[in-house]
């Protein structure tokens, strides 16, 4: 018997900042699972900055969302019917078909996750895609090494807050930027950052120079734009940049200007390296092996900004792009 | 008995494009060599784009030239007096105190070079700093690997022309940009490039797209600015950029705008790496071992643009920044 479900579809491609009218809540019927498939009731879904890129009709590393089709993204759910020997009713799984209440999909496209003492939503954040992004970006792409002074932009976000904590656990000096005084206090008081500043208070270059008088060695960038230019200016010789994202430009309607100090990349022998997390899937076991024990004994903590109700997922996403989250922005469904 | 010599001093720091009045020809006395020193009569001197940076009063990887002091730079000369057991009168040496007719310096600060069948000036170009720059930049910084389509900007210059030939010898498809139809013909007809275009004929992005319909994998950049933006657009996934220089901006009086497509670095997982040749001195023997035999049997060729007379060195340097050279720009002294 088909299941009634609600889903969020892309109604129109956003121009600039997404509007409520770019999204549409639709009721649909979800079929029963076929052989090898499972029916999942989603309990949590993720909104992530990268989704903004998929809403535009632009060639990229993932195809754009289709107008009139449901959006996609990370989700956690409970198996409510199974035609697969690998998943039992009651199992908690993660998968990539969020933005909807129910979904039928091959069991093989899901991952069963441990929720013993771990909140299911953590698998969308610190133990999920953002967690792996932070881990691989800092260690493999950024090549963190002894003595590095680390700067992370968007440091109070899902990725940035773990980057900072992973670096602190390794004994590094860590500087973070965020977009409010409350977030800055969170970085300093809760996450143990050595220095942090509100990038809205003045030029990023000035704040960074004050926070890092001897310069920085590794920049983990989630923001782009002015942050990247300031970091290129502050990086020491042989410094490295892990380019994870550039949220400052995601709603731009004109190409944002690039750093005006690119010439410094030569003289300082800097390396800038872009990455996307799916190239680093083999590092997931290493990340889990470090982060799970650290979560259990409190050496790593995380915050979530929880929005209730599938119908509010577009508002959550819009708020994410405005920086309304501290830590991971998640939507609780049903 | 002191030797009368002429030298070029920096008379004023250039603002924008250097003027003749920023340089001054001065007659000085050069003392006799002391213990361990040699007196050298310079026969050739180099003008190189990086010297423009040293004429500005800006913190960089080499200290700025001093106003009122002689300029410095690569030179080849003949030993005319020696107080060192390591150098004989008649030896040909290279050193870093060009822009003058005679110089006394410690023998240990010079390198004796082979001029058997090799023109002395080649040690300022294909076998000198530009040669090592091309070799290390292409192989080590750019990480040339099988199947790479290579794009080099300023391809008719001292560095670019060797980058292209080294890549061709390894079987790669090589595309070059240059600033005149004659240079483009030189790349295609003399150096074996697969494609080349005059960047003054239209947008670099359009010319590059036409020359590399399947994109590029490695960009060796001597020019910066529009070239870098076009290359970021044309690079395939996991592409690499060896940032050697950015001559397009060396005379800029305002910070040149950066690439507006930096976001592509993330999605394509690009790596941009700046370098300076002095970090790669250990690769000199490898470069010499490859290039000398290739020069002797004609698999590598090089051009020089020769300006006669020390007094014309400022004009040579100014012409270099305007792209008036094909191959290495050198000044013949005395």
TrEMBL record, chains A, B:
Keyword Oxidoreductase in record: yes
Highest taxon above the source species: Bacteria
Pfam families: ADH_N_2, ADH_zinc_N
Residue stretches in coiled coil: none
GO molecular function term, any single one: oxidoreductase activity, acting on the CH-CH group of donors, NAD or NADP as acceptor
InterPro entries tied to this protein: ADH-like_C, ADH_N_2, ER, GroES-like_sf, MDR_fam, NAD(P)-bd_dom_sf
Domain Enoyl reductase (ER) per the UniProt entry, residue ranges: 19-331
Residue numbers spanned by region Disordered: 1-20
Listed PANTHER family: PROSTAGLANDIN REDUCTASE, PROSTAGLANDIN REDUCTASE 1
This protein's name: NADP-dependent oxidoreductase
Native source species: Baekduia soli
């Amino acid at each position: 018997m088909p299941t009634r479900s609600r889903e969020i579809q892309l109604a129109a491609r956003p121009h600039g900042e997404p509007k409520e009218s770019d999204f549409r809540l639709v009721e649909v019927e979800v079929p029963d699972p076929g052989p090898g498939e499972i029916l999942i009731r989603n309990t949590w879904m993720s909104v992530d900055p990268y989704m903004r890129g998929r809403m535009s009709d632009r060639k990229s590393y993932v195809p754009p969302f289709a107008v009139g089709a449901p959006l996609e993204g990370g989700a956690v759910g409970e198996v409510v019917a199974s035609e697969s020997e690998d998943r039992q009713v009651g199992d908690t799984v993660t998968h990539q078909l969020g933005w909807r209440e129910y979904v039928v999909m091959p069991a093989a496209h899901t991952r069963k996750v441990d929720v013993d003492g771990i909140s299911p939503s953590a698998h969308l954040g610190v133990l999920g895609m953002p967690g792996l992004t932070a881990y691989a970006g800092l260690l493999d792409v950024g090549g963190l090494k002894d003595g590095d002074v680390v700067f992370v932009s968007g440091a109070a976000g899902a990725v940035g807050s773990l980057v900072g904590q992973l670096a602190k656990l390794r004994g590094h000096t860590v500087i973070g930027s965020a977009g409010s005084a409350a977030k800055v206090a969170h970085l300093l008081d809760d996450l143990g950052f050595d220095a942090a500043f509100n990038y809205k208070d003045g030029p990023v270059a000035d704040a960074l120079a004050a926070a890092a008088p001897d310069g920085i060695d590794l920049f983990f960038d989630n923001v782009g734009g002015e942050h990247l230019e300031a970091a290129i200016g502050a990086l020491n010789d042989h410094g490295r940049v892990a380019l994870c994202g550039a949220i400052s430009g995601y709603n731009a309607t004109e190409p944002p200007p690039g750093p005006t100090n690119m010439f410094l990349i030569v003289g300082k022998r800097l390396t800038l390296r872009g990455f996307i997390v799916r190239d680093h899937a083999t590092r997931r076991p290493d990340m889990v092996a470090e982060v799970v024990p650290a979560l259990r004994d409190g050496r790593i903590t995380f915050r979530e900004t929880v929005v209730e109700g599938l119908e509010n997922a577009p508002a959550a996403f819009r708020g994410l792009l405005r920086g309304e989250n501290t830590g991971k922005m998640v939507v609780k469904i049903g």
